[in-house]
Design brief:
about 80 residues; mainly alpha
């Protein structure tokens, strides 16, 4: 077992797909709860769910891209041998 190659960059796509699934499930549950609730709380959840979904996907993407950037910085600043 060698630690000369990073595993994280190859897992980024899988992690992003998992993030999309989790964020989408939470947004769907928010929509269901909003539709089932009466009053202002239900309307609030119906409005908040798509906003949460969009911002959650953007946030996950930015965090994962930041991880890729850190690994590329490490690779580009590694001493040449």
């Amino acid at each position: 077992m060698s630690f000369t190659r990073f595993v994280t960059p190859s897992l980024i796509k899988v992690l992003f797909i998992l993030a999309i699934i989790v964020i989408s499930l939470v947004a769907v549950f928010m929509l269901i709860a909003g539709a089932a609730s009466a009053g202002d709380g239900g309307i609030f959840l119906l409005i908040l769910a798509p906003i949460y979904w969009l911002l959650g996907i953007i946030y996950a993407r930015v965090l994962l891209e930041l991880a890729v950037v850190f690994f590329r910085i490490e690779v580009n600043t590694r001493p040449k041998s």
